[in-house]
Design goal:
Shape of chain A: elongated
Structural class of chain B: alpha/beta
Oligomer: heterodimer
Number of helices of chain B: 11
Radius of gyration of chain A: 19 Å
Mean pLDDT of chain A: 94
Subcellular location (chain B): Cell projection, Lamellipodium membrane; Cell projection, Ruffle membrane; Cytoplasm, Cytoskeleton; Cytoplasm, Cytosol
Structural class of chain A: alpha/beta
Distance between the termini of chain A: 59 Å
Subunit structure (chain B): Homodimer.
Number of strands of chain B: 14
Strand order of the largest sheet of chain B: 5-4-1-12-13-14
Strand content of chain B: 15-25%
GO molecular function (chain B): metal ion binding; protein serine/threonine phosphatase activity; pyridoxal phosphatase activity
Order of helices and strands of chain B: EEEHEHEHEHEHEEEHEHEHEHHEH
Cofactor (chain B): Mg(2+)
Keywords (chain B): Cell membrane, Cell projection, Cytoplasm, Cytoskeleton, Hydrolase, Magnesium, Membrane, Metal-binding, Pyridoxal phosphate
Helix content of chain B: 25-40%
Number of helices of chain A: 6
Largest sheet of chain B: 6 strands, parallel
Order of helices and strands of chain A: EHEEEHEHEHEHHE
Radius of gyration of chain B: 19 Å
Distance between the termini of chain B: 12 Å
Helix content of chain A: 25-40%
Largest sheet of chain A: 3 strands, parallel
Low-confidence stretches of chain A: none
Number of strands of chain A: 8
Chain lengths: 165, 282
């Protein structure tokens, strides 16, 4: 397929119709544009969990395929990058010191929350098990400490009593 | 030197065009009794197809047994790992192949069975996922591969690490390396890579022909695969400039402080392998 002369960016998101042909086309745009063609990924999640322990490939896999072929790094908009927090904070009057980030994933939700100065709360109804957190907590590596939440709950329903409901 | 190992794409030919003087070089090597063998990361073609390609492009006397492609060597690797010492193919579970008919044929020829695409889960577990050059790669196949890889006993193997390949019009096409990166990310596993710069293909060559590395030269066009392969196998290396790598890249590696970079610097370089012909008379 011929290249559209107006294209200035390649955006990689979740694409269940991803194919070699599309990967090829992305590579052609990136080579044609060089640094003038942006390479952006929505997020780096490796897997989207399904019931029963199964999972489907996440956007991160497709971003990696494009990055490898083009031999350049994508700008990632999603967590743990703080771009989305900055979007929220610019629209709403947020005081990080009085805001809690609630999530189930350490390397996206909790890391972003910690990086943005929010209080972080991990819920165990998703991908993360408690021993994973303990592993990071006990580690000597400071980078891993950024993955440790301030609090955790088994489920966000556990927050109801605290609200006086 | 007693013999030479040649990479193919960008060394002997570019697309459908033989590098001028390359067929003559091989002919002169044959006549002076020096061995010429071929080692290619390209996993698209079977060695039988490659034999026909050599002939079609004007290279005489090259037989399939002289050609070591990553397709062939991946099949041999899987046969070794799935069948152990001896035994026939029916003993091993199927292999899920992400690749074209050339690669699939080599896997079958090694006595292994292929897992079907788009079929319900087979009655027995898939024993390996093999990632090659797959221009029919889709999200659905990626998801299918990941399903098989949930079993820790299922091997993840890649034919080669190449991130892209040049096309004759100056464009690039994504390589196996980019597809492997997707599978590794989704499965959380690291692939066993058969092709250059890893040394398995050299083991295949030694097993068949008993080559002495100290008297063998490796000739290639890609620093990160061919030249590093030569270094890893104990071969002296020649970079030819008719393919992927530019002289400036080799110079940059030479100027680098990192020890790893030094391994990517060839012993010699030529503008084209035709430049080796005069040296044969010495």
């Amino acid at each position: 397929a011929p290249l559209d002369p107006a294209v200035r960016a390649v955006l990689v998101g979740f694409d269940e119709h991803f194919s070699y042909a599309k990967l090829c086309q992305a590579l052609r745009y990136l080579l044609r544009g060089g640094p003038d063609c942006l390479l952006v990924g929505t997020n780096r999640d490796h897997r989207l969990p399904l019931e029963g322990g199964a999972a489907i490939p996440g956007t991160g896999c497709l971003v990696k395929a494009v990055e490898t072929a083009a031999q350049r790094e994508a700008f990632i908009v999603g967590k743990p990058n703080r771009f989305m927090f900055d979007c929220v904070a610019s629209e709403f009057d947020l005081d990080p010191a009085r805001t809690i980030m609630v999530g189930d994933r350490l390397d996206t939700d909790i890391l972003m929350g910690n990086s943005c100065g929010l209080t972080t709360l991990l819920t165990l109804t998703g991908v993360t098990a408690l021993d994973e957190v303990r592993g990071h907590q006990d580690s000597d590596c400071p980078a891993r400490h950024s993955l440790v939440p301030d609090y955790y709950v088994d489920s966000i329903a556990d927050l109801l009593p605290a609200l006086g409901e | 030197a007693q013999g030479l190992l040649f990479d193919c794409d960008g060394v002997l030919w570019a697309g459908e065009r033989a590098v001028p003087g390359a067929p003559e070089l091989l002919e002169r090597l044959r006549r002076s009794g020096k061995a010429a063998l071929f080692v290619s990361n390209n996993s698209r073609r079977s060695v039988a197809e490659l034999e026909r390609r050599f002939s079609r492009l004007g290279f005489r006397g090259v037989r399939a047994e002289h050609v070591f492609s990553s397709a062939l060597c991946s099949a041999l690797f899987l046969r070794q790992r799935l069948l152990g010492g001896g035994g026939n193919g029916s003993g091993a579970g199927p292999v899920f192949v992400l690749g074209g008919e050339g690669l699939r044929g080599e896997v079958r020829d090694a006595g292994l069975r292929l897992a079907g695409e788009g079929e319900p889960a087979p009655g027995e577990p898939v024993r390996a996922v093999l990632v090659g050059y797959d221009d029919q790669f889709t999200f659905a196949k990626l998801a299918q591969a990941c399903g098989y890889l949930r079993d820790p006993q299922c091997l993840l193997v890649a034919t080669d690490p190449d991130p892209w390949h040049p096309l004759s019009d100056g464009q690039r096409t994504p390589g196996t390396g980019s597809l492997t990166a997707a599978v590794e990310t989704a499965s959380g596993r690291k692939a066993l890579v058969v092709g250059k710069p890893n040394t398995y293909m050299f083991d295949c060559i030694v097993e068949r022909f008993g080559v002495d590395p100290s008297r063998t030269l490796m000739v290639g066009d890609r620093l990160e695969t061919d030249i590093l392969f030569g270094k890893n196998c104990g071969l002296a290396t020649i970079l030819t400039l008719t393919g992927v790598s530019r002289l400036e890249e080799a110079q940059a590696y030479m100027a680098s402080d990192s020890a790893a970079a030094k391994d990517l610097v060839p012993n010699y370089y030529v503008d084209s392998i035709a430049d080796l012909i005069p040296g044969l008379d010495e």
